[in-house]
């Protein structure tokens, strides 16, 4: 039989059809989402003299290669956090802690009911960080305070660092409120005992929180100041639990027996911070590895 041009065209078409039948159809696949690299935030809570524990935590994180990208602090945490964010390493922080005398940051106003003014604390912080403003610090940093007029949480991340730390540390009943512009500010622990949310607002996607806050003891005080302090502790405890739940890691140094004014226990607090951070390292590494 003579093969004509039309036969050849028909054979070619069959070959194309058979080839198509033997080929696996391409199935569209969803793009694989790669998690963003960890941007670690360190949220340092309030606790007066217990705040020296933060230095121990930082020591262990640095010693084990955990690089902190952003820092936030409330009250005592804002003091340590500001110095750390300025570029000091853990050993420099410890040197400052050992050399610190309570008189360097305590200025009592006898005409103001014996309350601490806070100007000395502001000046101390600014001197230690070389009078840098927030934008000149080595790491992004924020200090959390409470607006006394409306109870709002205020996150300071611009301007005068020492003044922001002073506002964040103005414990009601002990410090005079810090006046900035037309507003009065008090301790950030009233609304944010451990500033986890502030760390995320600074861009952290993995937050390590350090909780040194006092817990309600179950014993009520008969003094006016004691009852006020107990009320603040209870309120802060409930708020703190909610915010801590939004952290990836919570480190809780055992500093419950250290009093708010026990500056002579600074070395004990540092060691407790080291121990608590060391215990948390396996979980930190595990959770960071899961992001990859």
UniProtKB/TrEMBL annotation:
TM region(s), chain numbering: none
Active site: 75 (nucleophile), 187 (proton acceptor)
InterPro entries, A to Z: Acyl_Trfase/lysoPLipase, NTE, PNPLA_dom
Name of the featured protein: Patatin-like phospholipase family protein
UniProt KW keywords: Hydrolase, Lipid degradation, Lipid metabolism, Signal
N-terminal signal peptide: 1-20
SUPFAM superfamilies reported in the protein's UniProt record: FabD/lysophospholipase-like
One protein family per Pfam: Patatin
Renumbered ranges of motif GXSXG: 73-77
Residue ranges of the motif DGA/G: 187-189
GO molecular function, a single term: hydrolase activity
């Amino acid at each position: 039989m003579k093969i004509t041009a039309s036969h050849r065209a028909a054979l070619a078409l069959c070959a194309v059809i058979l080839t198509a039948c033997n080929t696996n159809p391409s199935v569209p696949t969803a793009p694989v989402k790669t998690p963003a690299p960890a941007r670690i935030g360190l949220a340092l809570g309030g606790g007066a003299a217990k705040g020296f524990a933060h230095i121990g935590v930082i020591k262990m994180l640095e010693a084990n290669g955990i690089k902190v990208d952003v820092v936030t602090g409330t009250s005592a945490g804002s003091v340590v956090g500001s110095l750390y964010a300025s570029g000091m390493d853990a050993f420099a922080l410890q040197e400052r802690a050992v050399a610190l005398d309570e008189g360097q940051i305590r200025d009592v106003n006898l005409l103001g009911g014996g309350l601490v003014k806070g100007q000395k604390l502001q000046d101390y912080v600014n001197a230690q960080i070389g009078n840098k403003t927030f934008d000149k610090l080595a790491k992004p940093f924020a200090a959390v305070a409470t607006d006394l007029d409306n109870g709002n949480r205020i996150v300071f991340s611009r301007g005068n660092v020492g003044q922001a730390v002073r506002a964040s540390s103005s414990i009601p009943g002990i410090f005079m409120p810090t006046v900035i512009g037309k507003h009065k500010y008090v301790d950030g622990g009233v609304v944010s005992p451990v500033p986890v949310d502030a760390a995320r607002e600074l861009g952290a996607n993995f937050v390590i929180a350090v909780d040194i806050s006092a817990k309600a003891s179950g014993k009520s005080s008969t003094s006016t100041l004691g009852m006020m302090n107990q009320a603040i502790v209870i309120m802060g405890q409930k708020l703190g639990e909610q915010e801590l739940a939004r952290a990836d890691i919570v480190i809780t140094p055992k500093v419950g027996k250290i009093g708010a004014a026990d500056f002579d226990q600074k070395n004990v607090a540092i060691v407790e911070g080291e121990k608590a951070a060391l215990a948390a390292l396996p979980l930190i590494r595990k959770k960071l590895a899961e992001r990859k």
